[in-house]
Write a structure and sequence with these properties.
Order of helices and strands: EHEHEHEHEHEHHEHHHH
Mean pLDDT: 89
Strand content: 5-15%
Distance between the termini: 19 Å
CATH class of the largest domain: Alpha Beta
Number of strands: 7
Radius of gyration: 24 Å
Number of helices: 11
Length: 320
C-alpha cells in the first residue's frame, strides 16, 4: 500500500493582511500543516491570523526582525523538516497563487520524478498577454541570466515564488548562505544544481488582482546581475574543477584565452594601423581571426556540454 507524503505549506507574511485568510481558506485536504511566517509584519499578520483563523493545521512562526521572503521561507523549511513533513510548498500570502494548484506541484516530487518544482507563467502564450510588458521583458532577461548561473537550461520564470521541495533536498541547502530577499528563488536554484537535484517547471497562469508587488525589476536588475555572475563563477568551479573534470573543463579556459588573445592582438594592430596609416598584412589578420573563431567554437562546445548536463537523477531517491 502506497503511503501519501505529508505536505506542509509555507506562507511568508509581510503586508498581506487583506489576503492571508483567503489564501489559508483555499488550502485543500491534501495539506497537513500550514506555516504562517510573520516576517516582522507591520500589519501584525501573525496575530491577525491567530485571532481570525481556526484551521487546526495553522502554525504561526514569528520573526523579531524582518528577514525578507528568503528568510521567512527558510524558517518554514526548518520547521517543516523538524516536524517530519515530506514535501514543503511555498505559497505567497498576497493571493496571486492558487492553492488548488498545490497537488500539481507536489505530484512529481511524490512520484520520484523531481526534487523541486516551480511555477512557470510563460507556458501558455495566450495567458501571458495579461502580464505587464515591463515585467514580461524583465522576467525574460532574468530567466536567461538564471540559466547561465544555475545550470538549469530548461527552466524559465525564475522569480516565480510558487515552489515545492522534498525534505531531503531542503535539508541539504545551506540555510545560512542563501540570499534572504528577492534573489532567494534564483539562489536556491544555484544551490540545488550544486547538489545535482532535479528541478522541473509546472505550467500555471499569470494572476493579477489588487495586490501590489514589492519587487521592482528595474531596481534589482543590477544587484541580480552581480549575484548571477558570482553564482555562475562558483558553479563552474564546483562542477567542472572541484568535484569533477571533463573535456568541458579544458574547453572553457582554452576558448576564453584564445578569444582574449585574438581580440587583444587584433585590436593592438588595428590601432597601430590607424595611427600609422599602414596596411595590416593578411597574415597578421589571420593570426588574430583564427584564435577568435576557434575560441568561439570552444566556448560553444562548453555551453553545449553544460546544457546536456542538467541533472536528471532525482536526489532524494539517491539519498534514500
Amino acid at each position: 500500500m502506497t503511503i501519501s507524503p505529508t505536505i506542509a505549506v509555507i506562507i511568508p507574511c509581510y503586508k498581506v493582511r487583506e489576503h492571508i485568510l483567503g489564501v489559508i481558506s483555499g488550502m485543500g485536504t491534501e495539506v497537513n500543516k500550514i506555516y504562517v511566517v510573520d516576517d516582522c509584519c507591520p500589519d501584525g499578520s501573525g496575530n491577525y491570523v491567530s485571532e481570525n483563523c481556526h484551521d487546526q493545521r495553522v502554525v504561526i512562526l514569528r520573526h523579531e526582525v524582518n528577514q525578507g521572503v528568503g528568510g521567512a521561507v527558510m524558517t518554514g523549511y526548518q520547521a517543516g523538516i523538524k516536524d517530519g513533513m515530506d514535501i514543503l510548498v511555498k505559497v505567497d500570502g498576497d493571493g496571486q497563487m492558487d492553492p488548488a494548484l498545490i497537488p500539481r506541484f507536489t505530484a512529481p516530487i511524490a512520484a520520484g520524478e523531481a526534487d523541486y518544482t516551480k511555477g512557470n507563467r510563460f507556458f501558455d502564450l495566450e495567458e501571458i498577454r495579461a502580464m505587464p510588458k515591463m515585467r514580461l521583458f524583465g522576467n525574460a532577461v532574468l530567466s536567461f541570466m538564471t540559466k547561465l548561473s544555475s545550470g538549469y537550461w530548461d527552466l524559465f520564470d525564475p522569480t516565480n515564488g510558487f515552489t515545492a521541495i522534498h525534505k531531503d533536498a531542503a535539508r541539504h541547502l545551506p540555510f545560512n548562505k542563501i540570499s534572504r530577499r528577492y534573489f532567494f528563488e534564483t539562489d536556491v536554484l544555484f544551490r540545488l544544481n550544486t547538489l545535482r537535484a532535479v528541478v522541473i517547471d509546472i505550467p500555471m497562469d499569470a494572476k493579477y488582482g489588487d495586490e501590489v508587488s514589492n519587487l521592482k525589476i528595474s531596481k534589482v536588475i543590477g544587484e541580480f546581475f552581480t549575484k548571477h555572475v558570482r553564482n555562475f563563477t562558483k558553479r563552474i568551479f564546483y562542477n567542472y574543477y572541484l568535484r569533477d573534470m571533463s573535456v568541458a573543463s579544458l574547453e572553457l579556459p582554452a576558448g576564453l584565452l584564445m578569444l582574449l588573445f585574438g581580440t587583444a592582438f587584433g585590436s593592438s594592430h588595428w590601432i597601430t594601423s590607424i595611427e600609422t596609416g599602414a596596411t595590416t598584412p593578411a597574415g597578421t589578420i589571420m593570426l588574430s581571426a583564427i584564435p577568435i573563431i576557434v575560441g568561439i567554437q570552444f566556448v560553444l562546445a562548453f555551453l553545449a556540454y553544460d546544457i546536456s548536463s542538467v541533472p536528471r537523477r532525482v536526489l532524494h531517491n539517491k539519498l534514500r
